[in-house]
Amino acid sequence: MDIRLIVEEVAASYGTRNVFAAVSVELCAGETMVVSGQNGSGKSTFLRLLAGLQRADAGQITYLAGNEAFDPRDAGHLIGWVAPDLMLYRDLTARENLRFFAAVRRISLDDHAIDEVLARVGLAGRSDDRLAAYSSGMTQRMRYAYALIHHPPVLLLDEPTVTLDERGAEVVDTVINAQRRHGIVVIATNDPRELRYGDLVLEFGST
Amino acid sequence: MVQQMAQVGKLLIGLWMAGVTIVMFLVIPQYEGLGNAGRIIIMHVPTAWVSVLAFAISAIFSGLYLWKRNPTYDDYAVAAAEGGFLFTALATVTGMIFSQVVWGIYWNWDPRQTSIFVLLLIYAALFALRSAIDDVQRRRQLSAVYSLFAFVTVPFLIFVAPRIADSTLHPNCVFIQGSTCDGITLDVGKIGLLGDRKIQLIALEREGDLVTAEVIVSEPGLSSETTLRPSFNLATGTMADRPEFPGVRYQLGLEYVDPSITSGLLNIEAPGTGVLDNRITLFTFLASIAGFTALFFWMLNLRANLLGLQWALAQRDGGRV
Amino acid sequence: MAGHSSTEQDPGLTLTTQQPVAQQRIVDLLQAAWAVFVKDLRIELRTRYAINAMVLFAACTAMMVSIGTTFIGLRRTEEALLIQASLLWIALLFAAISGLSRGFVHEEETRTLAALRLAAPAIAVYLGKFLLNLALLALLGLITSLLFIVLVRVQVGSPLAFLGMLAAGGLSLATSTTILAAIITRASFKNALFAVLAFPLLVPPLIIAIQGTAATLADGGGVVALPALQFLIAYSVAMFVASLLLFRFVWEA
Predict the structure, then answer these.
(1) Fewer Cβ within 10 Å of end Cβ, chain B: N or C?
(2) Topology relative to the membrane, per the entry (chain B) (predicted)?
(3) What CATH number does domain A3-204 carry, 3.20.20.140, 3.40.50.300, 3.20.20.70, 1.20.950.20?
């Protein structure tokens, strides 16, 4: 599917403190953008704005999918978001979590498909454990499973490999490379190994 | 130019309210049974009206804020709520004073008291909510939602009002044109309810043109009974003697007696019935309503501008609000 | 606005695509709402935070009332019935306040709000939580009235009307507090604030519910309670519609 992300003059602030002002950028399918900058420069906030979890103080963010335009707040079906502050239900098992999110997204996901997704992120065999029993690395893997079940054309990754081991980082590498072929990837990171993904680098802060 | 007009407007409101106050205390006549306490209605009813108006205006600006997301609308919604809270408190206090003087109790959970109590609670809840949310945008949005949501309950309060108390202290038949207190027609020896008082017509005695009724009155919840003797003049067709119920300034009137003198129409006569029949009082009353309304809008504008200024300053300094 | 339905529609669902799109969206919404409800119910049954708090609260209140009143040996006067109805609704109200915010507050505490916001339509979330609160209230209502019948010697003259009042009162409670629970999740002092926000909105339905319930405790009170029932249902409908219209603003705040 043809997908475009248009960011026009977007600004964000916390209370009265401006985090960033007037960011404009445009991304098409197949493009990857890396957002970097020191801590507190607004990388995560920018990704939250793109995910529609927060409202921009000024400016406009639009997703164009096919012939339709979406405000980020209505574009949940286009977006997969992975971030340290993404949490899933700790009292449910991995399988129950994915089954629930598939149900509210109105996509069919049978047990076989769930096993497939969990195998893809390296959680095969732990699908019937509650998330409360997961380590932080496994939690991060689970976030990818959550973000990928609906095959979103846009992936928003905030610190994609945080707490992951070597194997986990490889999983993320596979996911990003697969996504870049047909969709948009936005990565917020300061990790030099991840900066190389960017067709485009947006540098925040120090202004 | 605009500033000058605002100055003139401010002055006018001040003079107007001063005039209303002077007339209220010095010009309008006293009312039979109410004494000087009756003058408080010139303040009480307009403040009550403004507190409801303020609530509606706050809800309207809350809706506008959700629609347009202009912080100015939120400033106005807050200012209206603050002003409304003040006037609600004033209406409650003036009402309680009047109630104590005239009816002998401060609080009765009568319909209008219940409504204004709920209004006070809603305002208080709104302020509590605002102070509990740190993020400015979120605070504005959530309090706007609460304000609108609470406003939905208003029609139900109005509907509920007449049902929660059989009797109301609020003198509808005194102040509101068109509403009546019908009273009750009793045969000799029969028992009936007048408001929440049980009354029994023991006897009717005729002396010349004067018919005197002997009535036993039982106060609600009290075992004590009192005998009252209201009378009726057959020749003129008017009430003669109207004794007061014990402890309150309501009177028991004998409004009519049938020609055979076997039954009579007994009714509560609120003191000051027809207060607004007096021209001067009516005009003072209306002037007071207009004055309070203007005062409220002036306060609303002033406070909203101040809030806007505060916000602009805070933003310029990059400080915290 | 375009639908929330995913681009990866399951082929099994295309069967329904001949129906008008709007109808399909409503069905999707209701099914998503049901999924939210089932998820919350499952979590609630595993953790039992809300149920424990509410039932314990109701039990304690019933015990206290029982200790305080059984010695009096109230005659079944109109006043006695009103007092019993008031005590019953006080127990119900405070137990409900202690548990009804749970659905949303739990999402905030486990920081799952963002995941839910991205995946579920706002209205579906509201409806799911509303159903959960209804279920909790149904359970609470039954347990509390049983406790009152057993411990406080409340005699129900018109059982059917009594159940009706309980249901209508519970409906009013759920419709007026579910959106408030969503509002307070983003605030500090959540539980105290919940009570403060809820109470003014609950005054009208509670007055009516208490009077109606008192009527149903008497024999043949069903007819007397009918206007109260109508009022509570009208109130619930108004609050429900207002919630549906306003919830989006809360959810996106």
Answers:
(1) N
(2) Multi-pass membrane protein
(3) 3.40.50.300
